[in-house]
Design goal:
Length: about 80
C-alpha cells in the first residue's frame, strides 16, 4: 500500500489531512477528483479550513468544453507553498 492509500484508509485522519497528503503527492486537485478519490464533496470548504490553519494553497480557474459542447469552469487547487 502507498502512503496515500494508508492515510486515506486510516479512520483517524481528517478530510483536511487526506487533502494535504493528496496535494503534496499529486500536485493538484479538482472537485471531481476530491469527490471520487477522497470522498470530499465540499472541496472549497476543506481548502478554506486549511487556509484558516495557515496553509497557502494556490488556485487557478480552469475552463474547457465538455463532450456535449457546453463550456465549463472549475477551480483547480495546487500544492501548498
Amino acid at each position: 500500500m502507498t502512503q496515500l492509500s494508508l492515510a486515506i484508509s486510516n479512520e483517524k485522519t481528517t478530510q483536511c489531512d487526506d487533502l494535504l497528503l493528496y496535494l503534496n503527492t499529486h500536485g493538484s486537485i479538482r472537485p471531481m477528483n476530491a469527490l471520487f478519490e477522497l470522498g470530499i464533496y465540499r472541496l472549497a470548504a476543506r481548502i478554506y479550513d486549511l487556509e484558516k490553519k495557515g496553509h497557502r494553497i494556490p488556485r487557478n480557474m480552469v475552463t474547457g468544453i465538455a463532450k456535449n459542447g457546453r463550456r465549463y469552469a472549475v477551480m483547480e487547487y495546487y500544492k501548498p507553498v
